[in-house]
Amino acid sequence: MRAGAPLEAARVAAVVLHGRDQDPGYMVEHLIGRLDVPDVAYVLPTAAGRSWYPDRYYAPRAANEPWLGHALAACEAAVDTVLAAGLPLDRLVLAGFSQGACLLADFVAGQPRGYGGAALLTGALIGEKPEAPPPLRGLPVTMVSSRYDEWVAIEHVRATARAFEAAGARVELTVLDDREHRIAPEAVAGVRALLEQAAR
């Protein structure tokens, strides 16, 4: 799904990943529609059956294959779509919510390139014992989650933040007291800041 400006006319692009039991329309309503950043092209991959992989993010990777591999390939195809339109990597922001944020964390750790930024909104690295990411060379990473979230444990979010920082990313972690599993205003503000930074 596409939203926002046409890729060929955009100053910056964003690949946006929805969560489990959601679709791109959810991200348009709950994230993109609240950003109010001009000249951004949004590319939104769609998970088959409204789920990127069947098990929980902390399950052994084998429990989520081959679906996880297909999901990562969908992320790569979305990035390739942006690059084929002529936008450079540093004008591409990646954002995901919940299961989409976990997928995004795994994608960034496996494809450490010079993106304009990554927003992990209630997400953590995938796997029973995630491997340390390779060098991330100053990648701006915004992470927003609640200490009470029932789907993504805050200790896993903090561990992901530490792993990304150790790999050289510039991580900004915001921990909320929100009781609702949602894209909070602080998460919207974090994505907005990444887009505005990439557009400059």
What does it look like?
This protein has 200 residues and is an alpha/beta fold. The protein is 35% helix and 19% strand. It is built from five helices and seven strands, in the order E-E-H-E-H-E-H-E-E-H-E-H. The protein has a seven-stranded mixed sheet, with helices on both faces.
Summarize the structure.
This protein is of the alpha/beta class.
In the CATH hierarchy, what is the superfamily?
Alpha/Beta hydrolase fold, catalytic domain
Largest beta sheet, briefly?
7 strands, mixed
Distance between the termini: 26 Å
- CATH class descriptor: Alpha Beta
Q: What is the CATH fold-level name?
A: Rossmann fold
Strand order of the largest sheet: 1-3-2-4-5-6-7
Net shape: globular
Q: C-alpha Rg, in Å?
A: 15 Å
Strand tally is 7
Helix tally?
5
* Regions with little confidence, pLDDT below 50 for 5+ residues: none
Number of domains: 1
Q: Element order, helices and strands?
A: EEHEHEHEEHEH
Strand content: 15-25%
Mean pLDDT: 97
Write the layout of secondary structure elements.
Layout lengths: L1 E3 L7 E6 L6 H12 L4 E4 L23 H18 L7 E6 L1 H12 L6 E5 L18 E7 L7 H13 L3 E7 L8 H15 L1
Parallel strand pairs: 2-3, 2-4, 4-5, 5-6, 6-7
Antiparallel strand pairs: 1-3
